Amino acid sequence: MLVVIILAFFLAMVMGFIYIERRGVGRFQVRLGPNRAGPQGILQPVADTIKLLVKEDIVPAKGDKWVHWLAPVITLIPVMMIFAVVPIHDGVGLIPDLDTGILYVIAISSLAVVGIFMAGWASNNKYSLIGAMRAVAQMVSYEIPLVLSIMGVILITGSLSMNQIVQAQSVPFILLQPLGFLIYFLSASAELNRTPFDLLEAESEIVAGYHTEYSGMKFALFYLAEYGHALAMSAIAATLFLGGWLGPGLPSFLWFVIKVLFIFFIIFWIRSTLPRLRVDQLMGFAWKCLFPLALINLFITGAEVIIWEALPWWLVIVNLFIATVLLVLWSKLFRSGREKIAV
Amino acid sequence: MALKTEPIVVNIGPQHPSTHGVFRMRVTFDGEVIVDLEPCLGYLHRGIEKLAETRTYTQNIPLTDRLDYLASMTNNLAYVLAVEKLAGVAVPERAEHLRVIMAELMRISSHLMAVGAFLNDCGAFMTPFLYMFREREKILDLFEMVCGQRLTYNYMRIGGVSHDIPDEFLPALRRFIAEMPGFIDEYDQLLASNEILLARAKGVGILPAKLAINTSASGPVLRASGVKWDIRQADPYSVYDRFDFGIPTGEVGDVYDRYWVRIQEMRQSVRILSQAVEQLPSGEVCASMPCLLRPPVGEAYGHIEGPKGELGFYLVSDNSIAPYRFHIRAPTLINLTALRDMTVGWKLADAIIIFGSIDICLAEVDR
């Protein structure tokens, strides 16, 4: 029963995300966005889904048929599996008390890259292949700062279980770990292939990247996986840094949804504002900027946890100060590559 | 042990989201780095030059609309200037001023499109593009007031312009002139201080001044390389010698400079517009012309500073009703010749923005 509820929640949220993003981006771009299907265009995701369902499914003649078929499935399933450990309402989830909760999330979410690479390879298309190559480089690189930024939270809580992390947040961890949150957020948007890190489906360069050759329901699965991943990353950010379901007044479930939507709003706000990075700048950003910052953050958090039994409240200000100093320092030191390569 | 690798050849285009039409680049990649690039043209060839030889001089004006459809007014202007030179027609003062107003509005509109499309190529997900469209819409409204059209205007005539402006045009234009500098500042503030844009565009795709001159590049592409060459001042046509305006030039000739030059040129165009509105005289808008123009035997070359570069029409007359030879010097085709030199050694993503920064219109390149 709970499985059905969680899956329904997942699908409903993804539908909602698609609608909110399309309307929201429409407003950012001085246009209306879809407003024809249903009141205020609320049925637009349904119409999209029906359109994709009835479309012809095309497999490239020289493509690898089985891998081509398997790729969207392998991309989508790990995304849905992440929700097994996310507590949605007052500690209720599928297995929110799992001892290795966060480890599980990290392990599962890094599987998605396999599906993307399979899609790029099986399509027998050069754009897809370039997209897949970029995907592997990018997702493997950003995995490291992502994990290191979560480590700070784990150090403070002393537990990997999602429920215990939420219960430990009398103060949301975004205040205790401002730098950690920022690194998590940036790496997560890179993992999600969202602008400015959307290199693997960079429309102006490689058409649609790894899913250039996908149509119909298989494309819909990729689409679902992309938004599902966005939902998962927002849900984890809300759980780890914003206090999950905790909040005064409203029912816990609602608090959770509000926090997830808030994170998602920032993601597509950035998407509709910034241009895209180049591939070497992207890798440089992960290794020269996020990675050392995440290590420093981990070191500082570790020191704090050792020194104080219970973290004093003024640490919030200290950490904010440290984060600001580090960011300013790095923005001065860090220079992304601009060099021409001799041929 | 070194891995065995081999370069891959990718056909970017003719159907691709950022080739601005049906342009095809045959690119050889070593990983993501470009080792070779070969532009393939001709997908939109319509034989306009030959077609023009079978039509009368007046009938050719709408043909020029179909060249660079983002700057139809300036195409009209270059063509009628060439015919007027050939036939020796004097144009009334008011018509000259109206032509300048239209040409400068067109330049702003074309540059808005160029900057918007360039940012789209940078991956900015349509937002800057649509903001540019918001302003371009106002210019199109102005054009619609004057000639009833929004894309192919067919407004210029040999000896003047087709209609006088309606009463509501000048107030609307004044409002536009008052608003536009604010909008340009807004764009510039949002984009020119964006770290990602700077990292993408600064130092990328440098076209040295010498190479720019050797490839006969013109327009913003040439000026971004630091060459101060603008036909409006180098060989003034119409009434441009009466206006006070600057010629912005870049320093290194990279993608960013091309973007910057376009932004600055929009500011200068607004300056010209406000002066032209001030000085606009009253009177006729078209000289009286014979129904069928038969220019004396001879040849003429009329050129203007179009939004994309030097747009020229070379006409040869044999005293018949149609030109004997009709040649177009299309600025974008000639600017494209430097594409290979600019892109080799850069990455795929750079090639797209370098190409975008040239600002081409395929209808004019292939014609």
List keywords for this structure.
heterodimer, A: 343 residues, mainly alpha, 14 helices, globular, B: 367 residues, alpha+beta, Cytochrome-c3 Hydrogenase, chain B, 3-stranded antiparallel beta sheet, 15 helices, 13% strand
If you had to describe this structure to a student in words, what would you say it looks like?
The complex is a heterodimer of chains A (343) and B (367). With 343 residues, chain A is an all-alpha fold. Chain A has one domain (58-333). In chain A, 67% of the residues lie in helices and 0% in strands. Chain A is built from 14 helices and no strands. Chain A has helices at 2-28, 44-54, 65-82, 101-109, 112-122, 126-157, 162-167, 173-176, 178-191, 203-206, 216-241, 252-271, 279-307, 315-333. In chain A, helix 11 packs across helix 12 (252-271). The longest helix of chain A has 32 residues, at 126-157. Chain A starts with a helix and ends in a 10-residue tail after the last helix. The mean pLDDT of chain A is 82. Chain B is of the alpha+beta class and 367 residues long. Chain B has one domain: Cytochrome-c3 Hydrogenase, chain B, CATH 1.10.645. Chain B has 15 helices and eight strands. Chain B has helices at residues 48-52, 60-65, 72-87, 93-121, 127-147, 169-192, 195-201, 209-214, 220-224, 231-234, 255-279, 331-336, 339-343, 348-358, 362-366; strands spanning 8-12, 24-30, 33-40, 156-157, 160-161, 298-306, 309-317, 325-329. Chain B has a three-stranded antiparallel β-sheet with strand order 1-2-3. A three-stranded antiparallel β-sheet of chain B has the order 6-7-8. Chain B is globular and about 75 Å long. At the A-B interface, helix 6, helix 10 and helix 13 of A face strand 3, helix 4, helix 5, helix 7 and helix 14 of B.
